[in-house]
Design goal:
The chain is of the alpha/beta class. The protein is built from twelve helices and 13 strands. About 10% of the residues have low confidence.
């Protein structure tokens, strides 16, 4: 029996629901070729950061007005161009090269939080050939005087500003750290986004207690992180008029199936590919197909949202019941 894996996402017809999420793999064209050969349905570029675009523009302005010494001092607080794998112009060049060599859709990515002029770079990404754009919203609230409503409103303004700039579909990637994710998701949809990506992962700094230094570290995801995504996709599915993409914690076909059953339209793989190489995706895709065939599913759509809040036989388990059960039944 032939299982139909075709999926629709961001107005794109995908051959299957497995996408390679934003990662440094796209910096290497040989890896990009391997990604397509392994069966990926689409590729998301790694993010171009708001600070990166603004700092590049500021550096150009500084060069033209080098006599303004105070400006040079201010720019020293930002990362230098050498801290980024691809500068803005090289980023666009890389996108054009990737579009020439692959037949699968390419999704651009911008990372920011404010509705500033940098959002105009979304137009450049569209002109470079992106089939869609993933807007990765990053927040680090530190001012105790700034209320949550202001932060969320700025985020919505950013989405709306990007929407006004480009015609290609937009996915918005958010964190789980919002008071009311369903309400925020609805506002994102109302601002013009087609899809919601759940969730971005923040690489928190650690502390070196001997040298008294803050140190950066890269911790790849584990399958256990998927549970948070499953819960919120199940809650949002069919309640908010927006497509869902799962990222974080998907390492196997079983993980992918769980995400799709919870309500994901697509599943993004990153950490498992960084750990095992792009060819790992081929194994996940093969195992996914075999599982669907074994359990007599004729289409991936037959499984989608079968365990969402609306469809699960025990919706209370998605909300508080599971929490209560775990705490009340544990025994030493």
């Amino acid at each position: 029996m032939s299982v139909q894996l075709q999926t629709s996402y961001l107005g794109l017809k995908l051959k299957n629901p497995l996408i390679v999420g934003a990662s440094p793999l796209v910096d290497y064209l040989n890896k990009v070729r391997e990604i397509e050969d392994s069966g990926a349905a689409a590729i998301v570029m790694h993010s171009l950061f708001e600070e990166q675009v603004e700092t590049t523009a500021a550096a150009s302005e500084s060069y033209l007005h080098s006599h303004e010494e105070t400006f040079a001092e201010a720019t020293s607080y930002f990362p230098s161009g050498l801290d980024f794998a691809l500068g803005p112009e090289r980023y666009l060049e890389q996108m054009r090269e990737i579009k020439k060599m692959v037949s699968i859709p390419l999704i651009g990515s911008l990372n920011g939080r404010t509705p500033g002029g940098w959002t105009g770079f979304a137009e450049d990404i569209e002109e470079a050939g992106a089939d869609a754009l993933e807007l990765n919203l990053y927040f680090q609230p530190t001012d105790p005087e700034t209320p949550a409503a202001v932060i969320e409103s700025e985020a919505i303004a950013t989405v709306r500003a990007v929407r006004e700039r480009i015609s290609i579909p937009i996915a918005v990637k958010i964190s789980p750290f919002f008071t009311s994710i369903p309400h925020f998701a609805r506002r994102i949809a109302d601002a013009g986004a087609t899809a919601l990506t759940l969730f971005n992962r923040f690489y928190q700094p650690d502390i070196d207690i001997e040298n008294l230094e803050t140190v950066s570290s890269l911790n790849l995801s584990e399958s256990s992180e998927l549970r948070l995504r499953l819960r919120w996709m199940a809650i949002l599915r069919d309640r908010i008029p927006i497509e869902l993409s799962c990222t974080g914690g998907v390492h196997s076909a079983e993980d992918a199936i769980k995400a799709i059953m919870a309500g994901a339209d697509t599943v993004q793989l990153v950490s498992c590919l960084l750990r095992n190489g792009p060819s790992h995706l081929a194994g996940v895709l093969s195992d996914l197909t075999k599982w669907l065939d074994e359990f007599e599913y004729t289409s991936i759509d037959d499984t989608r949202a079968s365990m969402s809040y609306r469809n699960t036989p025990n919706p209370e388990a998605i909300e508080r019941a599971n929490y209560l059960k775990i705490l009340q039944t544990w025994k030493p």
